[in-house]
Structure formats: C-alpha cells, structure tokens
Amino acid sequence: MRQGKTEGVTEPGLPAIAGGEPVRETQLPFSRPHLDECDVEAVVAVLREGRLAAGPRVREFEERFAQLLGVRYAVAVSSGTAALHAAYYAAGISREDEVILSPFASPATGSAVLYLGARPVFVDVDAETLTIDPALVEMNITEKTRAVVATHFAGFPCAIEALQELACKHNLLLIEDATEALGAVYRGRQAGNFGVTAAFSFHQDGIVTAGSGGMVVTNDEDAYRWLRLFTDQGVVRDVRDLVLAGEGPWHYEVQELGYDYRPTELQGALGLAQLGKLATFLARRQEIAARYHEAFADLPYVEPLKVRPGTVPAWPFYVLKLDLERLHADRRQIFLALLSERIRVGVHYLPVYLHPLYGWIGDPTVCTLHEGPPCPKAEAIYKRLLTLPLYPAMTDADVEDVIRAVRRVLIYFAK
Prior knowledge:
About 35% of the residues lie in helices and about 15% in strands. The chain has 13 helices and 15 strands. Keywords: Pyridoxal phosphate.
C-alpha cells in the first residue's frame, strides 16, 4: 500500500504490518481491571473468615448500589447474563411474548428472552449513537409485544424518554439493559432509573468488576419479590409464606422454578470495594475518551459515536466508525494492522440475530413489517466498527500508544 497524504495530518511512520517497528514492545490488552490493595484486602478478609456464600457484604453491596442509583431495591446476582434473565422475568416476560431489542448488544440480551420462551424482535438503530431507534420501535409493535429493552450501547444512554412514552402509550414494559452503562447519565438521572427493571454487569471488563456478577434494580415492590424468589432457586424460607407450614423450623420449600443465581461473598466484597472508586474510574474514562476525541478530530476516515445533548456516556470502550470509502483497506486489515502494532482492539457487536443460533432454532426473529435484513443500518454499520481500549488501568503512555498506532495505520491506508 502507498502512504496516504492528508492536509494537516502528520505522518507517523511506516506501520509494523508494512515492515516498520511496532508502536509498543509489549502488547497492550484490550481491557484490564483496575485492582489495588483495597480490593485485595477485601477479598482476603472473606477468605480468612471462611464464609464464601452470600452474606453481609453482598447485602451491603446491594444497599450501596441502590443508594447510588437512587432506586428502592437492588438484587445482586452471579453474572450480567443472570441479571438480564432475572430482569426480564421479574418484569413479567413470559412464553410467546414478543420483546423488542436492539441488534447492537451483548448476545445475552437475546438469549435471556429465549430462556423465558419469548420471542426477540430486533429493531434497527440510530446511525449516530447506535442505540435503538424509537420511531422504528413503534412500527414493530404488535398485539403480542410485551416489552421494549433499552440497551445503552457502549455506555451511551439511548433515547430513553421517547421509549418511555412509547411504553406508556402502548401499555408495554420498559426494561433497561445497562450492562455497559454503570455511571451513564441521561438528563441528570442515572441509567437504570427508567425501566420497571434494569440489569447491570460486573464482569472483568466492566466499569467496576466483581470478577463476574451482576445487579438488577427496580422501584417496584412486586418485581423485587419475584427477583428474590427467582434468583434463589424459587426457595421460600419465611414461615409466613410457607404452604407446608407445619413441617418444622428446618423447613424451606420451592414455590417457583427459579435459578441458583446467587453471588458469592467474594463477589460482594470485591464489588463493594470497587464501587467506592466508581467516581474515580468514570473520571479517568472520560479523560481518555476526551483525549481520543482530540487526537482523531483531524482524521477524515473515522467517526466517533455522537454524544447526545444532556447525556454522559460511561465509556466502557471507545467505538470508531471507519469511513471505508476513504481507505485502501477493510475493517479486517485495519484490525490486523493494529494488532501488529501490539495494540489489542475489538469489534462490538455482530448484530445479535446474525449469530447462527437464530437460524438454527427455525425462527430468525426478524422485524415483521419489513422485507430483507431486519436491521439494514446495523448490518451496514457493523462492517465499519472498530473498538479501542479504554480503561482506568491504562497509563497516559498507553493512551498515546493507541493514538499513535491508530493514526499510523489509518494514514498509511488512506486514499
């Protein structure tokens, strides 16, 4: 490939894939949790005590999380997928219901609908923010539609008020997929504050981590009771609620088909320690995102996601849309070139319904009112997406290495 020339852009040298020296001597991981001695001590204290099952630290984690979000209830679970499953169940999703989803989300958002015997219906996205388009949501509401899932893609708050209005107008449930959006803000309110239930994730690459884990929040007392039952194997222990009340003081009974989604005390301890640093983590993510914005502003071959007025993203990672018409390379070549610079990058996400599962189950769960691809914008944009590392454990030098690598590769492949 020839060297690209763009007015106002400084040539950063020959990329490694073309024979130059890599930007880094060692590989920069795509993500890495920010762990300190406080986190280590919190986990070690649990190990020393010897109680590993959910206990007081899990309860405190739930209470602190609810206070942070400004909601009445929070229920900790073992994973983000478990959080989505429980959030759908507690909201009232059941067999044969249709649930409207964004195609740009973790595959778990669709799987959790299928777990309940319901039908996912995928609706296209806004081309600037890559969150679900409310106008298209309304076009796909049928008599079987029970809920809309508001996925805050890449930590960007979706048009949640418009979705609330649609849900109210059509008597639908609104559920938030906030698994990537802890700390995101929409018009002064935290993401997770708008739906009947909302799901969060604490996986290794999360805004805060518990190693794994998740949380479901709600302001609805009935939803909270169902959450407790569902995530604890459907077990009832309170003597006031027992059917076989005369069995004895040891007695508990199963009253619902629940799941063992309880977190461990280790997860509660680590999550609690991490939650205390959330403000610091978010500030560092904002700082890195701002540096990326500044560094790529003069590159005509990339476009970041647009931040809507009145919103603050959580920045779990940084998404670029490549302008492939201006490049002598496709996304795969750009991806491999950055790996050659020893920068791990990613792609978020393959539209959920394109995973083979949806063909194999005999129902592609496509939008029922359109012919052709159910989400043509998402499919077209997906081919252009590239995700850069963005996490608090990155040093300033790491950030500059990413910038140098991206600029070097894109300028080299520029037309």
